[in-house]
Amino acid sequence: MVAPDVKRYVARRRVEIGRRIRAVRETKGLSQAQAAQVLGCTRVTYTRVELGQAELTVSELEYLAKTWGVSLQSLLA
To answer: Which of 33, 37, 55, 77 has a Cα-to-Cα distance from 44 of 20 to 30 A?
Structure first.
């Protein structure tokens, strides 16, 4: 069983990472649909990532960072 503080921390981090992903996407002038296409998911799923309701794997985050020309650290920091 996962401790409640861990669950809260993970949920908070998901939201923070989603906000960073959104900021980079907007800076690049991309729509959510275009970002979803890069990741091979639906726009609804991608929207859930930006809202912190779903998370990407490390490999997906690496791929997104590489595709957008940003560091993985910038998405996770």
So the answer is: 77
